[in-house]
Amino acid sequence: MPNMIYLGSCHCGAVRFEVEASANIEVENCNCSICSMSGYLHLIVPKQDFKLLTDAAALQTYTFNTGVAKHFFCTTCGIKPFYLPRSNPDGVDVNVNCLDELPANMTVVAFDGRNWEQHAHKLAHKSKPTGP
User: Fold this and answer.
1) What is the pLDDT of residue 115?
2) What pLDDT digit, counting tens, does each position of 115-132 carry?
3) What is the pTM of this model?
4) Per-residue pLDDT for 49 more than 70?
5) What CA–CA distance (Å, rounded) separates 25 from 35?
6) Cβ–Cβ < 8 Å for 127, 46
7) Separation CA 46–CA 7 (nearest Å)
8) What would the CATH number be for the domain defined by 3-127?
9) How far is C-alpha 31 from the geometric centre of its chain's CA atoms?
10) Alpha carbon distances (Å) from 42 to 23, 24, 39, 59, 95
11) Angle (nearest 5°) at CA 34 between 103 and 119
12) How do the domains of the chain map onto residue ranges?
């Protein structure tokens, strides 16, 4: 099945992006402290499949714990539409809840982020390019 282009944004629209992904996607519902508090649903894609459409000046970066993951928040509304994940440094992790339209076929799977070190390897394949 061909890939789709999904548009998304933060709440106020100051941060807009597009992401290329399959029409049938699998997303993770992580139970770690930051994801469970913010309701983040993870769609990890290769960096080449993500494009920021607005000025990066509208973003603020937040890091915690190891400081490797770069969480980007809108400076106006505070929503985190995407980040650069520690598990996939060659990818971008998009919050599916920030897409303008949800994919028609989406499977949500639980991810045990509270025990991240034991489970991070399960995400490594997510940022690898697919197809020809």
Assistant:
1) 82
2) 878 887 888 888 888 765
3) 0.86
4) yes
5) 19
6) yes
7) 16
8) 2.170.150.70
9) 15
10) 15, 14, 10, 19, 5
11) 75
12) 3-127
